[in-house]
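[Automated response] Your request has been received and processed.

Submitted sequence:
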Amino acid sequence: MMDEILEVIAYSGYRGEEVPRTFSLNKGRIEVIKVTNAWIEEDPGNRVRKRFFTVKGNDGHAHQIYYNEQASAWFYVQKKKE
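Generated structure:
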C-alpha cells in the first residue's frame, strides 16, 4: 500500500519544512493541535531521510505523517488493513 501524498503547511525553522501545522486529508483541512511524537528514519541503502510526526488533529484523531527529504514532499502513513 502506498502512502498518500499530502499538502502540508509547516513551520519553517532554520532547516526548512520542520513542523507540520495543518494538512489536507480527504478534501478537508486538519489543524495540528499537538505533535505527540517525532523521529527521523534513514534508509542505509539509498540514504533517504524521512522525518516522521505523530500529531493530534483538531478532528480528535491521531495521524502519522512524514516529510521525505529526497522527494521534498509530505506523505500520510496509510494504516495497514488486517
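Summary generated for your ticket: The chain has no helices and seven strands. Residues 4-76 form one domain.
If you did not submit this request, please reply to this message.
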